[in-house]
Amino acid sequence: MGGTEGRGVTGLDTSTPNIARMSDYLLGGKDNFAADREFAESLLTIAPEVKTMAVDTRDFIERVVRFLVDQGVTQFVNIASGLPTQRNTHEVAQELLPGARVVYVDDDPVVLNHARAVLARNHDTGVVKGSILRPSEMTADPEMTRLIDLDRPVAVLIPARLQYLPDADEPYKGVAHLRDRLAPGSFIAIGHAVFDSRPELADPILSLFRRIVPQGDARTREKVLRFFDGTELVEPGLVYIRQWRPETPQSEAQAQRVWIVGGVGRVP
């Protein structure tokens, strides 16, 4: 967008920063508006490493998808996937396993419009309007049931959304409800920012995000671990994402430069 502010998206508010569009800007994309860019630059003033974190989150998800394909998973549900960029879940999965089925779930109109346009000719990939806070509605969507058989193992990816949902919205309940709907042998992969190694950033960053989302208290790694209740964490467990099965070993100091933890839980 950049120079086409809001064109073609009915009712779109371009004056309010949006998480998906801000992430697109941090990843070098063009599908963002002035408000998103200004918000992202304010965030970078507080924590310049956030730009690196956006890239590392994409790399983490690619490693997760590769691992899950090796485990025999053929179905993927990517929740709050953000705007289509390079190396999306369907690209990685279908490159390794032609015919792998992927559904993207989001509730942002720009994300939905772009995803549907990009994926219009990919019959093994679909787009669903939904949220982890409304799991029953999401799993019952016709596009979801067309592509995903929940009676067979499926991988659910939630790479960077839960950190924006306060406890009052009951995100733990949403994840648990979805987990209970999955077949044995399914997986849940989660990425989540934490401030364990950078406590001084918590207040300024949360104050900034409260301008656009009803942000709750910052979660620690131990609180993020609760999202995996009822699953069996695969090795190496819930770790900083740079330490999750990296191609090159990462020291603790290197890993903590990206203060996002991630893990994959198997549904028994």
Provide an overview of this structure.
This is SAM-dependent methyltransferase. This protein has eleven helices and eight strands. By secondary structure, it is α/β, with parallel strands linked by helices. It has one domain: Vaccinia Virus protein VP39 (Rossmann fold, 3-Layer(aba) Sandwich). Strands 1, 2, 3, 4, 5, 6, 7 and 8 form an eight-stranded mixed sheet that branches. Helix 1 packs across helix 2 and helix 3 packs parallel to helix 4. The protein is globular and about 45 Å long. The N terminus is likely disordered.
What topology does this entry show?
Layout: H1 19-26, H2 34-46, H3 50-70, E1 75-79, H4 89-96, E2 101-106, H5 109-118, E3 125-129, H6 135-140, H7 142-147, E4 155-158, H8 171-181, E5 187-193, H9 202-209, H10 221-225, E6 232-233, E7 239-240, H11 252-255, E8 260-266
Parallel strand pairs: 1-2, 1-4, 2-3, 4-5
Antiparallel strand pairs: 5-8, 6-8, 7-8
Number of strands: 8
Instruction: Specify the helix fraction band.
Output: 25-40%
Question: Overall pLDDT, averaged?
Answer: 90
H/E series: HHHEHEHEHHEHEHHEEHE
**Major β-sheet, in short?**
8 strands, mixed
The number of domains is 1
Under the CATH scheme, the architecture is 3-Layer(aba) Sandwich
| Strand content bin | 5-15%
> For the terminal residues, how far apart are their CA atoms?
44 Å
| Unreliable stretches | 1-11
Global shape: globular
How large is the radius of gyration?
18 Å
CATH uppermost class? Alpha Beta
Assembly state? single chain
For CATH, the homologous superfamily is named as Vaccinia Virus protein VP39
Structural class of the helix and strand makeup?
A: alpha/beta
Determine the number of helices (DSSP H or I, runs of at least 4 residues).
11
Looking at the structure, the CATH topology is Rossmann fold
